[in-house]
Structures are given as structure tokens and as C-alpha cells.
Design brief:
The structure is a homodimer of 502-residue chains.
Chain A: H1 3-22, H2 53-64, H3 86-97, H4 109-125, E1 141-145, H5 148-167, H6 174-185, E2 188-193, H7 198-207, E3 210-214, H8 226-239, E4 242-249, H9 261-271, E5 282-286, H10 297-303, E6 313-317, H11 318-321, E7 329-333, H12 337-343, H13 353-356, H14 376-410, E8 416-423, E9 426-431, H15 435-452, E10 459-463, E11 467-473, H16 481-499
Parallel strand pairs in A: 2-3, 2-4, 4-5, 5-6
Antiparallel strand pairs in A: 1-7, 6-7, 8-9, 9-11, 10-11
Helix pairs in contact in A: 3-14, 4-14, 5-7, 5-12, 8-9, 14-16, 15-16
Protein name (chains A, B): Pyridoxal phosphate-dependent transferase
Family (chains A, B): Belongs to the group II decarboxylase family.
Cofactor (chains A, B): pyridoxal 5'-phosphate
Chain lengths: 502, 502
């Protein structure tokens, strides 16, 4: 494929993509292929001779798109959004063209420097405390990770090393030190709640450290509070366990609850005083989805985001609700040295004057992988193309649709009960009925039937271990009020059928 | 940015990208900006109002490109290539448009199924033993990871869990079991050589397990051999350590050495017999760069790739030498259940009929992150667009240039000494001189001066802890023989100046 071939192929691809976006609502939201559908359509090995682009491209519509679930579809109300936008796609395009394994500053200074700059822009936009900026006095800063899972793993490794550095005496022999560490590792424990995203548990599993799940209460809105945390810390102490890491969530997966950041600080201060003492518990804030709402001052206030100044790391995914292609998980740390001391590995072949002189940031020391893509480009394009006002408008519009939806649901208390929300464009509700079993059965049937229609996609969850509920999310950019209204009407129609045993 | 704006912006971006590729050789290879250059050129926060695309795009040439080191430049002879191609860029474009967090099969069946299929295509193309195919009898298969570092970490977690499952008695109480595991963890050790890529050491650091570096010998061509491994295993046994993981390399970073796979098997079989016994050492093959050469039968034969049938995992980066954009690290495992048993985490919100019924692959259980991009598209486009013959042609052409280069270097023994290679388009050489110190000084000066010219970029390494050497790689797609010839002439010119003390 030479330059001219590429130009034609690219323009044709662009046109297909535009056509896909312009007509996405004519497709079913969820793919309805059967497992194994694609193997029957493709050859069993790569072709010996190269194929023409037109042949390859024609397979996109006929073989690939039938197997796509459309995350940009206006009737996608499942999980959280994975919002993209045209400026972001352009960022991916340039990033692909400028491909390099940019593990060091010198491997492309712009890749490192733009990342530091746009993450400072983002930190300011979200009104994160100044300690998370690269220019702040605590030597903080941001780094783009592939996912919130990698972010929490990175933070947890840094937390473990920090904890060991602070609590293992420095005057031991190598052998004594290894004994103490082995002994400590068996007692160190990661804390999270039963509403915390599974990535924290997975990170603990990967590191091979204990994991303790703290049950939050429905009456606290499924948020972690000071007394609940304090009692979990006491339980650990009684068992001789050493908590070193806690994930606090801003917008839990199930219900978009926001943990009580001030309460968490108070409970931790009572446990180890003062904050910053050796052996303090690292607090990582998982704001993967709802962190996007912090672009609006009203959510900075309602979540009390200023309280996280005492915490250690904060992560939000621009690739969920902030119009940026997967992947763009933005991880901020209060002191970047915590990452470097845990993740720095030197190898002769990577030596260079700028790195060796300590003049620059080498992001390979802030992450698990070595190489990295130029992901800050798409964030830069999105922030500039939409502007702060454009982002405000988008977040507020999707939140408003969630409020409207929740209002309509509440208006039909003969059919539905709102369990939580609306919170951050998410409403969690279920059907009413005599007793838990009937409510669950009805809600399950409702979920299956509306999804089976192909006209919308919602996902479900199980609260308190037994309450089956539907999550309805209105964050997708193409979703308009009319789509939400139609979805609500479908829900009512099916719910009435269920109540009337049709 | 509406559809029409996007069309214009995208076409203009495509034209800029073509222009960039067509004229890349007119640029200096390595960026010569100073640390912090970009902060002085950009505002300190995101704009309040959205900006026009033309404004954003014009910053690419004026502010970003000066900070780019050009990995696609024909005079890029540093590290390993990070080769891209037009079909691969189109794959990234479609992937960006179809953005979703495809953690489950149902989140887009095509994303999972195409990945399984093209990784089978690739396994066949590389002539990997059948056990690494998804259709093989051992239930193996491939998964795309972001980098070789994530691949080795994933394999190491799986290896640790497999080892513990096999060696910790199953009839213990919970408390006894935790004690045994804590005790074992303190003794478990990861093995690698001093030529193994640092990602293995980093993975061990992340998991918090011991790491033992085995020194390989210059007389073995810096490859790991049976007697060297056997003696390391005995050393571990004598110290009461328990080796559970070994990285074997096909194409080391420093010199592109290939470890002796048969010898490794023999040493391991003598250590724990028979292979497959409980507590066997997991062998991960890191073929990140040179694995690409396996598309050619001559390299399948010379590396004895059939020997890895007794090993456990194999990883190669299509994003290095196989014309596919970063990131596309292709990890194969002999039994996918090893990944699933180590990395599976269930959360109610992800439940769905296809997953719960065990009908499909959910790649989130084969990796650290939850969500994932549609990365198989670009691999599919590359394999189809180039065809097997196209890939043969490219690999052989770049290998041939490496052989030519090494030949020329050998032809000037008054100036140079080839230390290793040519191997997989990599030659490692240094300047001659009286004594080690003079050789090192001269070689260091040569490296600095040719890089300082802006006309090429080579990287260096330190062999045996003291021999400074230049690595010269000819794998970039735009590199032609004339570029290699010119680079050689520049090296000669500068070397003569150094010898003549100019």
C-alpha cells in the first residue's frame, strides 16, 4: 500500500466511519451473533499473497460489524459509557502515525511533555488539590495508564514499597531483612468495600497480598463511612493484620455512590496519627467513571473533592464519560517519587544523557509496561476541541437525562422503585411486588425482555447479595431525551405486561 | 465537530501524515529540543471555549513534531524498530471508531473472536508448536497484551498460582495454608539471565518475589545453555530456594542471542523429572523482537522453535518488527486455564448468559486490565495486506541489510571489531584500540559523535559489565541499502577522525 493507495483507503474508511456514526441508531444495540460465528466466515490461516484493500474493507461491514455491540448507540444504557468523539479519533490517527516505543523522554520528548502538561490541565479542570499537579510542592503529577485496573495495580505496588520502606528497620542484615519482609507480607492487607470495583481485588491477587472487603450499608447509600472503616481497621488490628492500602471510590460501579472522603481521613487519623506517619495507609481514589463530572463546579462541591489532598493517588478514565477513546486512564499521584522508587529498573541499553542527568520524566518508571503510545494527543485534542464549556454542556446534559429518567420512574410507583440515584447519570431501580422473590423475578424478567428486544441495552446488579436491580445509564453522547423517553416507555410497557402476567 | 467537519479534518490529517512519511528523511532522526521545551509553548490550562480544528492541527507541525524522535526514519538504527505501516494505521482508525470497553465476549463478540482467530493465524505463521493454538489439544491460545512487560507479568502471576496449586497440600486448614504460602513465597524465585530484558526483573519486583540473574558467557554467544542453567538450579536448591519461573529469550536486547531451548529443557528435566510434574518451572519465551523473524522458515529452523512445545508461554511483539502499530504484544499460552485460574474475578455487573454458560472466551481473564481495545483489527489488516510473502520479503530484506553492514564492518578491522552478529538485523560492534579502556573511550566517542550529527541514531550497551559497544539495527521499513551504506560511511569517517585524534 503506497501513499496514494493509503490516501484512497483512508478516505474510504473515514466515509464508512461517518456513515456508521450517522446511522448507528438503525442497528440493534447488542450483537446477536452466536459464539464462534466468525470462525466459520474466515480462512484458517493468513493469505500467502497480499490482498487488496477493497477486499479487506468489505469484510468490515459483512463480517465484523455484525459482531459489534455498539457502545456509541443512543440506546446503550449498560455499564458505563465508553464515549468517543471525532477529535479523539483524530488523536488516535496521529498517534498511530507517530508510532514509537516512547519509554524514555529522548524517545520522543513531545510524548512525555504533552502528557505532563495535559494531565496538569486535567487536574486543574477537575479541581484536584494542587498536590496532584506536576508543578506542585509535593512533586506530584499525572500519568496515562491503559485502564483503571493498571492504575490501581501501579498504586498498590508503590504503596507496598512505601509501607515496607517505612516500617522495616533499615539496620538489618540482608537475611534478617528478607525474613522481616516475608513475615510482614503475610500480614499486609488491602482494604476495599463490597462496592469497590473488582480491579482492587484483582490487583491484590496479582501482588499476592491479603484482601479484605468491608461491607457498606444501604442506609449510608452504599458509601464507605468513618464508623464502618474504623471498625474494619480495629478488626484488622485485633487479628494482627497490617492495612497498607485502601481504595476509596468516587462513583461505585453498582450505584455510583461516593465514599465519605472526610470520614475516611478521620478514621485513618484515629488509626495512625498524624497523617504522613510511617506506615500510614495509602488511599487510592477510584473515580474511573464519575470523576469526569468533576469538570463541573457543582460536582467538585458535592463530592468534596478538596478532601483528597490527604490521600495518595487518584484515577479517572477519560475513556469512559469524557469523550476520549479507550484507552486513557489518568492517574495522579501526590508524590511521583513513590512510583519511581517502586518501579524503576535500569538497563544499560536505555541510558541517555537526559535521563541519566535526572532532567526529565521517564514515564516507564511510573507504570508497569516499558513502552507507551502517544495517548496524550487525543486528550489534548478533546480538551481543546470541546473546551471547558463544551465539556460542561455534555456532562450536564447527560446528568439531566438521568434525572428526568429517575423522575419518570418515581412517577410510576405502581411498577417501579428507585433504589439509588439519579447519581452521575445512573439510576438503579427495580420492579415492585409482594416480597423480595417476586420483585427479583419481575425485575429479572424486565431486564431480559427489554434487552431481548434489541432496542436497548441495560445491565443489572445484585445489591446486598439478594436484591436484583437494573442500572440505567444515560451518559452516551448520541443519547437524546427522546431516546431516554422511548426507553422508559418500553420499560413501562414490558413491566405492565409482567404485572399483568402477559 | 460534526460529520462534515470531521471529514475535512480527517482528510487534512491523512494528507499531513502522508507528507510526514514521504519526507521523513529530511528531518533529523532524534529530536533536539531541550527538556521543558513544550511547557513554554502551551497555555497553562485548557481553553474555556472550543477551538477550531485548523488551530489545533497547525500546532502539530510547529509544536509537536519538533519534539518527536522519528522511529520510522530510515536512519533510525537504535534499540529495536517500532515499525508501523499504512494498513496498520487503518486498523487503529477503525478500532478508535468502534471504541468500547470490550472486557467480555458480549461487549463485542467480534473483538474477542477476531483476536482468537488472528492469533491462531500468527501462531501457524511463526510455526509455533500446535499446543499454542486455541484449537490445539492442550487448550492453548493467544491474547494481545499491551507490551512484553505486561505479557511476562501475566505469565508470572499464572506461574505463581500454578506452582502454589501444585505444591501446597490441599488438605490444610485456611490458617495452615496461609502459613505455608507465606513461607513458600519467601523462597520462590524467578530466574533470568543477565541478558534477559529488564521486564522480567520488573515483574518479579511487582509480585514481590525473589529474582536471580544467571550470568551467561561470551563464549556461548551470550545465550543460556544447559550447564549454566543446571548450575544455577543447583545453587537454588542448595540455598533452599524454589525456582518457579524462567524467562528464555529468542533475541536478547543487547545482542539478539537465542537461548538454547533444548538445553534448557534438559537442565529442567534433570532438575524436576518428568516435565509436567507438580512444581515444574514455568518457562516463558520472550521473543519480543526477533520472534517476528519466525515468519521465515529459515529462522524457524535456526532457532529450533519446535523445542518450545515443552515450555509454557511465548510472547512476540508485532509492534516491533512486524509492521503493526504499538501496541500489539502477542502472548501465547499452552493451557489457557492457567491464566483463568490466576486472573478470574467475578463481579455481578459483568454477568451475562454467554460468559456464565462457559461458551465463550472472556479475555479479561487472560490479562491484568479489565477493558480492552480492538487491537486484532490492525494485525488482521497487516497479515492480509502484506500476505505471508510480503512479510517474508520485508524480514529478509532487513536481515540482508544487517548482513551487509556486518560485512562492511568486518572489512575494516583496522577500525572495528564485530562483537556479535549479524543476528536478526542487529550487529554489535566496537572500535579497536590498545586495551579495553581505549576501545571503550573510542567507541563511546564514536557513538556520541555520529548521534550528535543528527544524521543517524544508534544506541549502545555494556557487555560483560565493561565492554562498551554500539548496537546497529536495520529493521526499519523505510531503511534501504543506501541508508545503511551512508551510515557505515559516516561511522568510518568519524572513527578515522577518532583514530587520528581529530
Amino acid at each position: 500500500m503506497d501513499s496514494q493507495d493509503f490516501r484512497e483507503a483512508a478516505i474510504s474508511s473515514i466515509d464508512e466511519i461517518i456513515n456508521y456514526y450517522d446511522n448507528i441508531s438503525s442497528r440493534d444495540v447488542v450483537s446477536n451473533v452466536s459464539p464462534g460465528y466468525l470462525r466459520t466466515l474466515l480462512p484458517t490461516s493468513a493469505p500467502v499473497q497480499g490482498e487488496a484493500w477493497a477486499t479487506i474493507q468489505s469484510d468490515m461491514e459483512t463480517k465484523i460489524l455484525p459482531g459489534i455491540t455498539h457502545w456509541q448507540h443512543p440506546n446503550f444504557h449498560a455499564f458505563f459509557p465508553c464515549a468517543t468523539s471525532y477529535p479523539s479519533i483524530l488523536g488516535e490517527l496521529y498517534s498511530a502515525a507517530l508510532s514509537g516505543a516512547c519509554f524514555n523522554w529522548i524517545c520522543s520528548p513531545a510524548v512525555t511533555e504533552l502528557e505532563t502538561i495535559v494531565l496538569d490541565w486535567l487536574a486543574k479542570l477537575l479541581c484536584l488539590p494542587g498536590c496532584y499537579l506536576s508543578t506542585g510542592s509535593t512533586r506530584g503529577g499525572g500519568v496515562i495508564q491503559g485502564s483503571a485496573s493498571e492504575a490501581v495495580l501501579t498504586a498498590m505496588v508503590a504503596a507496598r514499597e512505601k509501607y515496607l520502606l517505612e516500617t522495616v528497620p533499615s539496620d538489618l542484615s540482608e537475611e534478617e531483612r528478607e525474613d522481616v519482609i516475608a513475615h510482614k507480607r503475610a500480614k499486609m492487607v488491602v482494604l476495599a468495600t463490597n462496592m469497590t470495583h473488582s480491579s482492587t481485588k484483582k490487583a491484590a491477587l496479582i501482588l499476592g497480598v491479603r484482601f479484605k472487603s468491608i461491607s457498606v450499608r444501604a442506609e449510608d447509600g452504599y458509601a464507605l463511612t468513618a464508623p464502618v472503616l474504623a471498625s474494619a481497621l480495629e478488626e484488622c488490628r485485633a487479628k494482627g493484620l497490617e492495612p497498607f492500602f485502601l481504595t476509596a471510590t468516587l462513583g461505585t460501579t453498582d450505584t455510583c455512590a461516593v465514599d465519605d472522603f472526610r470520614g475516611i481521613s478521620e478514621a485513618l487519623e484515629a488509626y495512625i496519627y498524624p497523617p504522613g506517619s510511617p506506615g500510614e495507609v495509602w488511599v487510592h481514589v477510584d473515580a474511573a467513571y464519575a470523576g469526569a463530572a468533576l469538570v463541573c463546579p457543582e460536582f467538585q462541591a458535592s463530592t468534596k473533592i478538596e478532601q483528597i489532598a490527604k490521600f495518595h493517588s487518584f484515577d479517572m478514565n477519560m475513556h469512559k464519560w469524557l469523550l476520549t477513546n479507550f484507552d486513557a486512564s489518568c492517574l495522579f499521584v501526590r508524590n511521583r517519587n513513590w512510583f519511581v522508587q517502586a518501579l524503576s529498573i535500569n538497563q544499560a541499553v536505555y541510558g541517555n544523557a537526559a535521563s541519566d542527568g535526572g532532567l526529565v520524566t521517564d514515564y516507564r518508571e511510573w507504570q508497569i509496561p516499558l513502552g507507551r503510545r502517544f495517548r496524550s494527543l487525543k486528550i489534548w485534542f478533546v480538551l481543546r476541541s470541546f473546551g471547558v464549556e463544551g465539556l460542561h454542556g455534555y456532562i450536564r446534559r447527560t446528568v439531566k437525562m438521568g434525572e428526568d429518567f429517575a423522575g419518570w420512574v418515581k412517577g410510576r410507583e405502581d411498577l417501579f422503585e428507585v433504589i439509588t440515584g439519579p447519581a452521575f447519570a445512573l439510576t438503579v431501580f427495580r420492579m415492585v411486588g409482594d416480597g423480595e422473590e417476586m420483585r427479583n423475578e419481575r425485575t429479572r424478567a424486565l431486564c431480559e425482555r427489554v434487552n431481548g428486544s434489541g432496542r436497548m441495552w441495560v445491565t443489572s446488579t445484585l445489591l446486598d447479595g439478594s436484591r436484583f436491580a437494573i442500572r440505567f445509564m444515560t451518559g452516551v453522547r448520541s443519547t437524546e431525551e427522546r431516546h431516554v423517553r422511548a426507553a422508559f416507555e418500553l420499560l413501562v410497557e414490558v413491566a405492565e405486561e409482567i404485572v399483568n402476567k402477559k
